[in-house]
Design a protein that fits this description.
Helix content is 29%, strand content 24%. By secondary structure, the chain is of the alpha+beta class. It has a single domain, classed as Ribosomal Protein L30, Chain: A (2-Layer Sandwich).
Length: 62
């Protein structure tokens, strides 16, 4: 993965009934609102966070 490559992630499902760890991952990705889209560096750590909550977030095509 390139050093300056970015991925777009959308928060599309509420974490209200999710476990606390999942809520912390969503917050750690920088989400504050439902249906929000953020850009993050395409790193292994960010990919791992997305992989931890695939039922709450989705990766969008650039």
């Amino acid at each position: 993965m390139a050093g300056n490559k970015k991925i777009r992630i959308q928060y599309f499902r509420s974490a209200i009934a999710a476990p606390t760890k999942h809520k912390l991952v969503v917050k750690g990705l920088g989400f504050t609102r439902l249906n929000q889209i953020v850009q993050r560096p395409d790193t292994e750590s960010v990919r791992g966070m997305v992989k931890a909550v695939p039922h709450l977030v989705r990766i969008l095509e650039n």
